[in-house]
Amino acid sequence: MVEQEFDTDFNRRHGPLVRRAVAIAGSLFDCSAIALHGDAESAPRSATRSVRLSRGARPSLSRTSVGLVEMTYADPLSEAALAMLLAAMAGPDDPIAADPESLSVFALADRLAASDIPVLINGPTGTGKEVLSRFIHARSPRRGGPFIAVNCAAMPETMLEAMLFGHQKGAFTGATQAGEGFMRAADGGTLLLDEIAELPLPLQAKLLRALQEQEVVPIGATRPIRVDLRVIACANRDLPAEVAEGRFRADLYYRLNVFPLTLRPLRERPEDIAPLAFAMAMRHAPDPARVPCLGEAALAMLKLHAWPGNVRELENVIRRALLLVHGKTLIAPEHIVFDSPARLIPAALLAATAVPVADHGRKLSSIVQHSEARAIVETLEACGGNRLRAARELGISERTLRYRLAALREAGIDIGPHSLRGAAGARR
C-alpha cells in the first residue's frame, strides 16, 4: 500500500475489511501505488490507483475516473465486501484470488520467479494458466523483457517450425522476407508454450535441442543463433500419460518439468469465485461509472455451480448477467444463466430428503442452501456414506465437500444425523 496514515474514523469504519484485503492483495500484485481512503478524504498524490470506501445499506461499485474506484458496502466481514474490494484494487493484468488453494500456488510461484528454471503448469482448460505465467514473468528479473505467449494448438502444423524458430527469406514458397520466430522474439524475456502436448513429435526434438543449447537454427539457415529466454509450458492433458502412449517425448517432458505447478478446477477453489465475478463485472460493465453488484443470492448460486468451463465459463455467465440486468444496480439469481443447464433434483427425491427450513424464511439464498443440502444428503446416502465417492458424484473435491458440510452446519441447517455419520465415516 501507499504509505499513508489512516485516521481513527477510517480504522473504525473500514479497518476490518481493509486489513483482510491487504493481506491477500499484497501477495498477488504490487500495492505500493494503491491508496484506500474514506469518502471525505482525497487520495495521496503519489497514488496511481485509489479506492474510495463508504458504508451504506446498498452496495455499489463505480469507476468514476481514470485510476479512481468508488465502493460502497454494508458488512465489512462479508465475503461480498472482500471480493468487491479485491476487484477494485486489482489492475487490468493483476491476478485475482482469495481461496487458500490459489494463494498457496501464487506464493510458490513468487518464490519460483526469482530463479530461471523452466516451469510446467498443469490444469484444465480455462483455469488461468496464462495468468499464472504472466505473474511469474512479472515477478522475475526478466520482467523488463518481452513476454511471448504461443498457443501450440492454434498454429497450423505446417507453419509451426517457422513460427517458433524463424526462417530466412526464400526458405520456402511464400517466404518473401525473413522471420525471427517466437523464440527469438522472446530473447531476454519469457516464452510461454501453451498446450505443449499438441506439439508434433518431430518438432519436440528440435525444441528440446533449442532449450538445451539456448540457440535456434531458423529454416534455411546453417548457423545457430543464440537466445536467452525462460520457458514456461502449460498442459491441460496428462503429460506422463502422453509420454507412456508415445505421443510426447520423455526427454522433453523431463526438461520442462523442472518445477511443476498445478491449478485446480474452479469448483475446487470456491473462494475465488466472488472476487473473480466482481472483477469481470468491472471489466465488462457497459458503463464503468455504474457497475452492477452481485447480490448474496447470486453469489450463492455461483458457488453451487460445478463450473465445467472454469474461469472462462464464469466470464461468460457474468457477461450474460450484465446484459440481463438491464440498467439495474444489483445482479440477482434471475440474471444468472449458466453455459449448461443445472441438474435438477426430482420432486419425489426432494420430499424424501426434506430438510427442515426452521426459521430461515423464504429468502432465495436460504432456498439455495437447502437445495444444496438435499443434494448432498442424497448423494452421501447413495454412496453409503463414502465422502470421497460422494464428492466425485457431485463433481467437487472431497475438501470442497467438507467445506460445504461445515458451512451448512454453521448456517444452522440440519442435514440429519445419518448423513453426518456418513460424512464422518467416509474413509472406511
TrEMBL record:
<keyword id="KW-0547">Nucleotide-binding</keyword>
<dbReference type="Pfam" id="PF00158">
    <property type="entry name" value="Sigma54_activat"/>
</dbReference>
<keyword id="KW-0010">Activator</keyword>
<keyword id="KW-0067">ATP-binding</keyword>
<dbReference type="GO" id="GO:0043565">
    <property type="term" value="F:sequence-specific DNA binding"/>
</dbReference>
<keyword id="KW-0805">Transcription regulation</keyword>
<dbReference type="GO" id="GO:0005524">
    <property type="term" value="F:ATP binding"/>
</dbReference>
<dbReference type="InterPro" id="IPR058031">
    <property type="entry name" value="AAA_lid_NorR"/>
</dbReference>
<dbReference type="InterPro" id="IPR025944">
    <property type="entry name" value="Sigma_54_int_dom_CS"/>
</dbReference>
<dbReference type="Pfam" id="PF02954">
    <property type="entry name" value="HTH_8"/>
</dbReference>
<keyword id="KW-0902">Two-component regulatory system</keyword>
<dbReference type="GO" id="GO:0006355">
    <property type="term" value="P:regulation of DNA-templated transcription"/>
</dbReference>
<keyword id="KW-0804">Transcription</keyword>
<feature type="domain" description="Sigma-54 factor interaction">
    <location>
        <begin position="95"/>
        <end position="323"/>
    </location>
</feature>
<dbReference type="InterPro" id="IPR025943">
    <property type="entry name" value="Sigma_54_int_dom_ATP-bd_2"/>
</dbReference>
<dbReference type="GO" id="GO:0000160">
    <property type="term" value="P:phosphorelay signal transduction system"/>
</dbReference>
<dbReference type="InterPro" id="IPR009057">
    <property type="entry name" value="Homeodomain-like_sf"/>
</dbReference>
<dbReference type="Pfam" id="PF25601">
    <property type="entry name" value="AAA_lid_14"/>
</dbReference>
<keyword id="KW-0238">DNA-binding</keyword>
<dbReference type="InterPro" id="IPR003593">
    <property type="entry name" value="AAA+_ATPase"/>
</dbReference>
<dbReference type="InterPro" id="IPR002078">
    <property type="entry name" value="Sigma_54_int"/>
</dbReference>
<dbReference type="InterPro" id="IPR002197">
    <property type="entry name" value="HTH_Fis"/>
</dbReference>
<protein>
    <submittedName>
        <fullName>Sigma-54-dependent Fis family transcriptional regulator</fullName>
    </submittedName>
</protein>
<dbReference type="InterPro" id="IPR027417">
    <property type="entry name" value="P-loop_NTPase"/>
</dbReference>
